[in-house]
Design a protein that fits this description.
There is one protein chain. The chain is α/β, with parallel strands linked by helices and 381 residues long. The longest helix has 33 residues, at 239-271. α9 (298-310) runs parallel beside α10. 43% of the residues lie in helices and 13% in strands. It has 11 helices and 12 strands. A hairpin with a 2-residue loop joins β6 and β7 (174-175). It binds pyridoxal-5'-phosphate.
Length: 381
């Protein structure tokens, strides 16, 4: 059983993917071929926004949006303490400071209450300008934009949705990667919509921002190719990757997303009463980039992970350490103990195999193994 099965996906789409790749190689337009524009249009339509600008990675997408907004030294960018490193790294890459915020214990996404406290604290201290927040759609579940957007409005913060894991999720019928002033996503192979290497995209309703990102991704170019009007990046999506993504987006929207949701439902049913299964609040839909369970404490989690290894079941801990304790951010506020929820989650979470090609039999094997180990876990549950 694979944690995320890209081989089965390839075998099922092989004919179309091979044909798409062949076409690009024969054409020879490896940079900014017509597939890139086709993909951008298809992605914008799927998400439900006016503009999609693809680029070389999800990390670049985040960094370019912050650059386009002119965020830099003296600015505070609020980021969750429990997530992948990229949003905080993006702030630092611009010379701004990441200000960490605790997350919700049940949904794992940024806590609106903690966000408001953090913004108030920054304003009171007066050292940094509160400029932007990067909520993360963790494990496929959109952050709580119902509360985050009004807060951002109240404090004049730009909102950059990190939808790297969120693609396919929705909130009140609105798709992930369409919230806030701009959104970033990633096509890293293991993400809900992945290519065969690195890739990413920016989504926005703002024509001016989209134009700026198009300039930034091509060395800050002006109207002509060798006119450079701002410092930029070298961050385009390869035509080859766009051609693969066009095929995969079809599969994703037609059946893969639904298959992942069905897999999650089976997990929910068969794990009911044993471990804490993902909480999806009313009005939210997850794309299930991960299926993450929560144990009572670190001892139980480590024990279960070790036992599942013996059953030959791959699991991963997303994430073993909160961002505020990472050496790269030391001295940027927040020592051990500052964000208790994020710290506790790092000890208690465990992500199980999850992908659209997971069979009910595979899920049964995972849940049966957890069931078999459960009596040994139960005493402290
Ligand atoms: C993967 C990921 C990114 C970065 O994406 P890359 O394409 O690998 O640069 C950013 N944020 C989150 C939450 C991610 O999971």
């Amino acid at each position: 059983m694979e944690f995320r099965d890209l081989k089965t996906q390839y075998m099922s789409l092989k004919r179309q993917i091979d044909a798409a790749i062949d076409k690009v190689v024969i054409n020879g337009t490896f940079i900014m071929g017509k597939e890139v524009a086709q993909l951008e249009e298809a992605l914008a339509n799927y998400v439900g926004v006016h503009h999609c600008v693809t680029c070389a990675s999800g990390t670049d997408a985040l960094q370019m949006v912050l650059a386009a907004w002119g965020i830099g030294p003296g600015d505070a960018v609020f980021v969750p303490a429990f997530t992948f490193v990229a949003p905080a790294e993006a702030a630092v890459s611009r010379g701004a400071e990441p200000v960490f915020v605790d997350v919700e214990e049940d949904t794992y996404t940024i806590s609106p209450d903690s966000l408001e406290q953090a913004v108030e604290a920054v304003r009171q201290e007066g050292r940094l300008n509160a400029k932007a927040v990067i909520p993360v759609d963790l494990f496929g579940l959109p952050a709580d934009y119902r509360r985050i957007l009004p807060l951002a409005q109240k404090y004049g913060l730009k909102v950059l949705e990190d939808g790297a894991q969120g693609f396919g999720g929705s909130l009140d019928g609105q798709r992930a990667c369409s919230f806030g002033d701009a959104a970033a996503t990633s096509f890293f192979p293991a993400k809900p919509l992945g290519c065969y290497g690195d890739g990413g995209a920016v989504f926005t309703q703002d024509q001016g921002l989209a134009d700026l990102i198009r300039s930034l991704r091509a060395h800050g170019r002006g109207d002509s190719r060798y006119e450079h009007i701002r410092p930029g990046f070298n961050s385009r999506l390869d035509t080859l990757q766009a051609s693969v993504l066009l095929v995969k987006l079809e599969a994703f929207s037609h059946y893969e997303l639904e298959a992942s949701r069905q897999a999650a439902k089976l997990y929910d049913t068969w794990l009911n009463g044993m471990v804490r299964t993902p909480v999806i609040p009313k009005g939210f839909q997850s794309g299930f980039a991960q299926y993450t369970i929560q144990m009572k404490d670190g001892g139980q989690r480590d024990f279960l992970q070790e036992r599942l290894r013996k059953w030959d079941i791959p699991t991963t801990v997303y994430y073993p350490a909160p961002l505020h304790t990472q050496p790269v951010f030391s001295g940027m506020g927040g020592g051990e103990g500052e964000f208790p929820v994020a710290e506790a989650l790092c000890k208690r979470v465990l992500s199980l195999p999850m992908h659209p090609y997971l069979q009910p039999g595979d899920i049964r094997r995972v849940t049966a193994a957890i069931g078999a180990e459960y009596p040994f876990l139960a005493p402290s549950l």
